[in-house]
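Hi W.,

Here's what went into the run:
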Amino acid sequence: MRIDWKSYNPGAFYDELISSPGHARKSGKILARYLSSLKSEDLQQRKTAAELAIKAMGISFTVYSEAGNIDREWPFDIIPRIITEKQWQKTSQGLEQRLRALNCFIDDVYNDQKILKDKVVPAELIAKSGNFRKECLGMKPKHGVWAHVCGTDLIRDTNGQFYVLEDNLRVPSGVSYMLENRKVTKRVFPELFENYNILPITEYTSQLFDTLAAISPRPADYPEVVVLTPGIYNSAYFEHSFLAQRMGAELVEGGDLVVEDDCVYMRTINGLSRVDVIYRRIDDMFLDPEVFHPESVLGVKGLMRAWLKGNVALANAPGAGVADDKVIYTYVPAMIKYYLGEEPLLENVPSYLCVDEKQCKYVLENLDKLVVKPANESGGYGMLMGPQASKKERAEFARRIKANPRNYMAQPLISLSTAPVLGERGAEPRHIDLRPFILQAKDSYVTPGGLTRVAMVKGSYVVNSSQGGGSKDTWIVSEEER
Amino acid sequence: MLSRVAERIYWLGRYLERTENTARLLTVYSNLLLDLPRGTRVGWHTLVEITGSLQDFSDKFKETDERSVNRFLLSDQNNPSSIISSLSCARENARTTREIIPTEAWEQINNLYLFTRDNMGKATARGPRHQLLQDIIAHCQQIAGLLAGAMSHNSGYNFLRIARSLERADMTTRIVDVGSFTLVPSLTRGAEFQEQNAKPFANMIWMSVLHSLSAYQMYRQHVLDRVNGEDVVTFLLQDTQFPRAVMHSLVKLQSCLQHLPNNEASLAQVSATLQYLHDANIPELLQGGLLEYIDELQVEIASIHARITATWFLPVVSEQQQSA
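Here's what came out:
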């Protein structure tokens, strides 16, 4: 399993490490040289070490379908991905800018609705949005921020330029894997860290705590912050537990919380104890059986009352998902201009809205070239990959689009960039994307890098861990060598 | 600390201790039975009795031989008191309290589970089995040491220690129970037969009782007389210094309880149990009534558990939720 870069061919795609067979990009030269210097048994031994570390650290995620063995070890590729600090700076600013605009938008939608009145965003899009919560109208969360934690998916085209694929504003996950990936890489390739200037990422959990503390309704030195999880059977339970542990916050389930006199308390061995901030990792519809799904046992009865009265802060705020909709997404560049008076620093992937008659016609005529996405799904579910789909599947999608055009948008298939993945026969190119995490309350913070997700199957574009995707450690490196 | 978390930590403590105790028992019995002639009353069935799972066992196995009992107590995933089941529960409780216990402790517990799961299939022969059990015991002690050294001695730690003490007290009464049942003729039917049969080995069997609790060395230092039933039972029930003696375990438990809020009911129950233990006249009980006494003592220990559960683990259900 030796690595020979001369026989590594990324083809027409933008490969992040190897620009053409045998030639590494400038920032990756040391890494490429180092990897090809390793003997086969050395490489195998590092790979095994990483697998053992992941097993021992108990880094896992849960798959619903596999009964009995619900806890799966995290799939990880040991070759890190390198992005230069210079490239990253602009991207990072663009992400921060984007979230600021999105928060202005959400706050506007639930209050004055100026952007709808000015017809920058069509009002009927909101009226028909599955993620619009009328219960939130008139609410003014602290700092005007609704989405405190955002995971934005980025991809790079054949020229290496970053594009925003989507913004996840409800309960984005993956940040714990980003942090653990770095830890595993440190165990596996400690020597590489001496040759590279890699921006550290460990700060995230304290930044998250500060963000959450900043929205506490009670001025206190140590606000009671809790992480609300649906429980051990949730696919991201590992992450919920991880974040609670790193923040020193309690990890609670719905049954641990109770609302009395419109305040939230948790049940402790000392009796009831007041809660100030809830970092909730359950969906809106399960938050409060009094307001949403009445049969939900994951949530807390009366939670919405407490939140609307301003007695507890929720992150992300209920209703924030109204901006996390693949149709609303197409208006983000317009929002940036409208609210901030700035030019967008990051571009969207060109998109076609099925709700627009002309664009819809184009989509229906070109289904074999496009990726069609439903407005409200996440995790890669319910998508049509036009070029790979069968005729029957395309016909079925055409029917669905005609039935509910508001619910669909389409994008051309962008050639995702690739990076080398260590396989049975050495390194092979696989498609990747990137999910950085952005925090906003009083201040903003962007993770240096993010979670790189890998489509482990050759030629595949599907990177979601729920559908067999893997991951890589992501390095933002400054160009000056140490 | 959340009530739910306290409960999980408590069970983590109990399952870890149970794992270690069961591994000790299997080790000691493997050694003891090599020394005894065939047909002695002490046999592999005794182990099944100690763990209180006679019914489960006979549902599945026809013969009470070395192979079946070891499989039942080590690797049978359907037996809730096997080592692998205890470890699996310990791991699950650790996994759901990862944000409370030190990360290394979770990693160690996870490792111990994976290690046992991957190696138990090979442990049918005595040699590898002995090694596996030794490894499990060493690993359990390492985890206990790690928790003592890396976890703040806060409420969570108190619940761990309470759980450990209670599990120890419970296991010790079971072992004394079986030892007495086997060896004290006046307590059983067919006394005469029993006496003749077991007498030559009495010393050895009481020694093994001590060994199964790692108590032999400490007993010899404490009791200067040769090993005999009266002293062994007194030592294991009433000694205040030996960590696995019932009295010591309960005193430790009492001191941990003192650091917890709303502890009145639990403390009262522990005091009552301690009094009951203190009042026992062992020589007299050995003449008759020891088995009944131990039954009653186990009921007392179960009451401590019930008090703890009612005070700290059961949710305080508010009126609003009750009406829902």
